[in-house]
Amino acid sequence: MEPDGKQEAVKAIDNCLRQRLLRSTKVMFFFHRHAHHKDKLGRRSLDLKGAISMAADLARHFGLPDVIFRNLPETFSSFDFTGSGMLCLEETRVMVKKTLLQWHWALEGPAANFDSEIATCTLEDGGYSVAREMGRGGQGIMYLAKKKTEESSPWYSYFSTCGSQARATYCIKFYSKKNANAGGLQEILEEFHRMKEFDNEHVARTFEAFHDQDFVYLVNEPYFGGDFTKLAKRAYDKGVEMREGWWQAIFRQCLAGVEYLHREAQMHCDIKEANLMIRYNDDFTKPEVVLIDFGLAQSISVKVTGLSGTPGQAEMIDE
């Protein structure tokens, strides 16, 4: 794509992404224009031909380049979460959004996005104070931090419903810029953009990201119950009887989290004991499970080659 055409394409894609309500409305409008079928659940749906026509109308409306949806014949089935061979309205909305995001990243590049998409701010200027280290990973260090949560904060109503352990506390992941190249910074941004869109009780929640001269910071919801490598011992120490029903409830939550990710066209790609957390440590009779660490996550519409996951883990998948 020529430089002038690339700039215009980025501008059009960015405009479409920012106008969420208008985009959603237009997707619904063009969907109903071309949805001439019903899936096995009785919902109006698009077949591949209808999806291509719908995407063309949407591209013309927002002034998007013709190439944006050129891979739709290959990616169409990736968004068919029910296996019906068609896309319902919600699946169509996800398809449009994910396609736009992927093209935005491909055309804009990591360096341009990094400085423009997250704020420049020190930890102290952001109002955070570190309480203690929570853990270390291959990409960064996690710290428990505190911040005064005012009633005017957009997260006040959320934290007011949380347990006492989580209220006004955060898990902040520190990424050292000394150890990150442009590709590494892009991966951090991609992880942030994925996680800030998630809204499910079994998937990790991210609130904001910012950076200073030395670090990139990801501000996440904290989890205090440890991961699955410690689950059985902690439950035993609390006197919990780990019967079959207890384990069933736990794995049902794991599957609910994975199901949500797949509905959002995301694959975790690194599900293992260390990435399955328990929300609180004060009650192991009914543990609340949360999936964390989306550094290896992939959009379902992205073709992944080779093995994905942690070497030596049974969950490594060849996609």
Task: Provide an overview of this structure.
It comes from Cladocopium goreaui. It holds the Pfam family Pkinase. GO terms for molecular function: ATP binding; protein kinase activity. This is Acetyl-CoA carboxylase. The chain has 319 residues and is α+β, with helices and mostly antiparallel strands. Helices cover 40% and strands 17% of the residues. It is built from ten helices and 14 strands. It has helices at residues 3-18, 20-34, 48-62, 72-75, 89-108, 110-117, 156-159, 182-197, 228-237, 244-263, and strands at 37-38, 44-45, 119-120, 129-136, 141-146, 169-176, 206-211, 215-220, 266-267, 276-278, 289-291, 298-299, 307-308, 317-318. The strands form five sheets. A six-stranded mixed β-sheet has the order 3-7-8-6-5-4, with helices on one face. It has a two-stranded antiparallel sheet with strand order 1-2. Helix 1 packs antiparallel against helix 5 and helix 6 crosses helix 8 (182-197). The model is unreliable at 302-308 and 314-319 (pLDDT under 50).
